[in-house]
Design brief:
Helix content: 10-25%
Strand order of the largest sheet: 1-4-3-2
Distance between the termini: 27 Å
Number of strands: 8
Oligomer: single chain
Shape: globular
Strand content: 35-45%
Length: about 140
């Protein structure tokens, strides 16, 4: 059965530093789709973050590239299997050089935290109690 995928393309200042950051979070780099201009970060079977050098990123758009440290261009939200997994991923991101951002959201049935990566892109990590989803 076909599963739709998402490829999030993000401009980065330092490709090697960004690759190191995401591998420290536990993700892998797919060398088949990586070179000196881009790195394919495999987040899951259906989610891939494409980290692109800014000159390479600019070949895909005529728009100015946002400075994600001062402008929000996107909020990327990843699901987690548990509250502990939320904390683990965000804590690893901070240890790898990311920055905690926003407030911890604890609504009992839903729990989330967020971090900014090395280039200021905001990644939210959220867990929701499956019983609450089923209603």
């Amino acid at each position: 059965m076909y599963q739709q995928m998402i490829f999030v393309n993000l401009p980065v200042n330092d490709l090697d530093a960004s690759k190191k950051f995401f591998t420290e979070l536990g993700y892998t780099i797919n060398p088949q789709f990586s070179d000196e201009n881009a790195a394919s970060v495999v987040i899951s079977d259906t989610i891939v973050a494409m980290l692109l050098t800014k000159p390479f990123y600019s070949t895909f758009t005529k728009k100015a590239i946002a400075d994600a440290t001062t402008t929000s261009e996107v909020l990327i939200c990843l699901s987690a299997q548990s509250r502990a997994q939320v904390d683990e991923l965000v804590d690893r991101a901070i240890a790898a050089g990311g920055t905690a951002t926003g407030q911890t959201q604890d609504h009992g049935f839903m729990y989330g935290r967020a971090f900014d990566d090395l280039d200021g892109h905001t990644w939210e990590v959220m867990w929701m109690d499956p019983a609450a989803v089923q209603g």
